[in-house]
What we know:
Elements (H helix, E strand, L loop, with lengths): L2 E3 L6 H5 L5 H6 L10 H12 L10 E3 L8 E2 L1
Parallel strand pairs: 1-2
Antiparallel strand pairs: 2-3
Amino acid sequence: MNAVAPGLIETGLHAANGAPDRLDRLAATIPMQRAGTPLEVAEGVLWLLSAAASYTTGAIWKSAADGNGTSED
């Protein structure tokens, strides 16, 4: 079993809730200095579903937007 743990993702939720600069303030707290996109998360999920990940098990794919960009077992 594998899992996906995205960090800060740029969605309409941030724009619709809280202060207008909320996403910018949160992005400033991570090393990438930006939010990830839904497409970036989808690409990680597609990789986990692909043959390239056929020997991957027990991993947590973390998006680079969480400031880490690694997967761990």
